[in-house]
Amino acid sequence: MLYGIVRDSYKEPIADAVVKLIEVENRMGKEVRKPVSHTFTDEDGEFVFGPLCANRLYEVEIWVDNVKHAKICTECHRKGKCLKG
Fold first, then answer.
1. What SS3 class is residue 38?
2. What's the mean pLDDT in 33-37?
3. Which DSSP state fits 11?
4. In terms of CB atoms within 10 Å, which end of the chain has fewer, N or C?
């Protein structure tokens, strides 16, 4: 599971930000990005994705007012059913 809180520069939560989950693979030296899912932050700026696949690289993009604000990379080591790109 991947959980986070989106905040502005004043540390205030941002509601209704678009949060995109992208699976990143390296195939023959070329980066391939596959959209997996997306969600919106709640009134407290919180979002959650899961369950995620083990041993995969994910990237999270956060969009507010049509502007990409952040990219966070993470690896998950969970086994079993998971979100896939």
1. strand
2. 94
3. S
4. N
> What is the Cα gyration radius of the chain?
13
Distance CA 33, CA 70 (A): 16
CA distances from 7 to 17, 29, 45, 61, 76 (A): 10, 35, 7, 14, 23
**Residue 18 pLDDT more than 90?**
yes
| Helix, strand or coil, per DSSP, at residue 31 | strand
What CA–CA distances, in Å, run from 42 to 10, 18, 45? 18, 10, 5
Q: What percentage of residues in the chain have a pLDDT greater than 70?
A: 76
**Tokens, residue 81:** 């059913």
Q: Hey, what are 79's tokens?
A: 């086994």
Distance of CA 76 to the CA centre of its chain: 12
DSSP bridge pairs for 3: 48
